[in-house]
Design a protein that fits this description.
hpI Integrase, Chain A; single chain; 2 domains; DNA polymerase, domain 1
């Protein structure tokens, strides 16, 4: 195996990378092709084949680039390790020009300034989830307590609830975990995860000023 998902996850957590939360979601696409392949057997041809496969499945170039970035880090960790049979030389990765770059996103510095102004716990959780995972507002607003697993530290989007109708599971960052834990206090499984403290469990909506 070129590298285990949890090895990369630990590396991402150590570096406090925001993409830690979606690592497993991206890894599930890489796993069938590279999960059981020895690192030294991964070639540029295999990687190009993966790109062709993902495009055939309808994946956007930006999505493929994020997945390749994860694979590259996995191989890099193997290359830098002292494991027997470690990768001696990194394979060549293709350069994919992204045509679907999403506009209107903020960088880490801007995000830090924004969250410094947010005092309501429910709104901070909403913003934290949106920034960390890139979920749509409707996806976040409709999250139920039952979709949050505090033991596994994951948030699950059900099939049919996402833009492409596929299920999705993300790993909670420490910040999301703590805010979600607080938001779940006193709630039932079917209750909305994020609710305004002033209106109890009636939740938030597009017209409730949640943007």
């Amino acid at each position: 195996m070129c590298c285990r998902a949890r090895d990369v996850e630990r590396d991402y957590l150590d570096q406090k990378r925001k993409s830690t939360g979606v690592l497993r979601f991206r890894w599930k696409h890489l796993e069938p092709v590279f999960g059981s392949t020895l690192a030294q057997n991964v070639t540029g041809e295999m990687i190009n084949g993966y790109v062709d496969r993902r495009r055939a499945e309808g994946a956007e170039d930006s999505t493929i680039n994020r997945e390749l970035s994860l694979l590259k880090r996995a191989l890099r960790l193997n290359h830098l390790s002292d494991k027997p049979g470690r990768l001696a030389r990194m394979p060549k990765f293709p350069t994919i020009k992204e045509r679907n770059v999403r506009k209107g996103f903020i960088d880490d510095a801007e995000y830090a300034r924004l969250t410094a102004q947010v005092t309501d716990a429910w709104l901070r959780l909403f913003v934290e989830i949106a920034y960390t995972y890139g979920m749509r507002r409707s996806e976040i607003a409709n999250l139920r307590v039952s979709q949050v697993d505090l033991v596994r530290r994951t948030i699950r989007l059900e099939v049919g609830a996402t833009k492409n109708d596929e299920g999705r599971e993300v790993i909670m960052t420490p910040a999301v975990y703590e805010l979600a834990r607080q938001a779940m206090v006193g709630k039932k499984a079917e209750d909305l995860l994020i609710t305004r403290e002033t209106v109890g469990r009636s939740g938030i909506s597009a017209s409730a000023g949640a943007s």
